[in-house]
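re: the backbone from monday

yeah here it is again, tokenized this time
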């Protein structure tokens, strides 16, 4: 059974570029690992706060323009930020090609 994004994750996609929104909503249905969106479009103030806390290292984040999302994998009952889960499920060859076609950096 394919995974679907929660209402919370869908809400976090508000304001991101349409192409990126489509990639994420398509990827969840094709992924073999459940995942959620933790961050999408950010305000300047939100980004400043993240930089001040050390949670981000740049004020040139693609989140400021709606060109980036952060995701976490749900592995059983735990949340994982480990890229290897996301590489397997989200950055599969079909998605890499789709992102290249759409001129998105990965």
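seq for it, each position gets an aa:
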């Amino acid at each position: 059974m394919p995974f679907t994004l929660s209402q919370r994750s869908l809400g976090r996609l508000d304001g991101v570029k349409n192409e990126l929104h489509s990639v994420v909503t398509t990827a969840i249905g094709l992924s073999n690992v459940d995942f959620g969106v933790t961050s999408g479009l950010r305000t300047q103030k939100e980004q400043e706060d993240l930089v001040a806390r050390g949670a981000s290292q740049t004020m040139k984040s693609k989140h400021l323009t709606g060109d980036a999302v952060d995701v976490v994998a749900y592995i059983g009952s735990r949340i994982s930020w480990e890229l290897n889960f996301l590489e397997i499920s989200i950055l599969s060859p079909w998605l890499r090609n789709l992102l290249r076609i759409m001129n998105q950096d990965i």
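Strands lie at 34-39, 70-75, 78-80. DSSP finds five helices and three strands in the chain.
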